[in-house]
Design brief:
The chain has 166 residues and is an alpha/beta fold. Helices cover 41% and strands 17% of the residues. It contains six helices and five strands, in the order E-H-E-H-E-H-E-H-E-H-H.
């Protein structure tokens, strides 16, 4: 690419699913650099602490040299602008995601007029996966191997067995 375009893919990633991984893969085909921005999650109670989520994300994107993983707290706008981002990647699974994401994109456009929001859909077999569902299934003793990588599954099972260990 003549003009490198930096894209930021923000999320809580608690944990990162195969759907998230698929969106990262798709983003690498469009942008010269992708920053996976792991939210501190101040507005959510997360199963994994911030450092655990960063470590998992870094391991999962290691095959993509143009992808980095960083954490952020506060306004996404400040993070994107500080890194020279020109696009924000958002994953869409279904129509139910669209309403929220459309409103968020409008707000982000108001805060960052020079940054475009790009919606990417994961492959068909990942369309229904959400971190919330994965955590719930794992907590209730169900199988999650179809929804997350083996490494994430191992960490998830360990977390379910030892919920108070950080």
């Amino acid at each position: 690419m003549a003009n490198p375009v930096i894209a930021v893919y923000p999320g809580t990633f608690d944990p990162m699913t195969l759907g998230h991984e698929d969106v990262v893969r798709r983003a690498t085909q469009l942008f010269s650099k992708v920053i996976v921005a792991v939210a501190a999650g101040h507005h959510k109670k997360t199963m994994f602490n911030l450092q655990e989520r960063i470590e998992m994300a870094r391991e999962l994107v290691a095959a993509y040299p143009q992808v980095t993983v960083e954490s952020f707290a506060g306004l996404m706008r400040d993070f994107v602008v500080a890194r020279g981002g020109k696009a924000m990647v958002r994953g869409l699974r279904a129509v139910t995601d669209f309403d929220y994401e459309f409103q968020l994109a409008g707000m982000n456009r108001s805060l960052m007029p020079d940054v475009e929001t790009v919606f990417l859909t994961p492959g068909d077999r990942f369309q229904f996966i959400s971190s919330t569902f994965v955590r719930e299934i794992a907590t209730l003793g169900g199988e999650v191997d179809k929804f997350v990588s083996p490494m994430v599954q191992a960490r998830l099972m360990d977390k379910v067995r030892n919920p108070n260990r950080d």
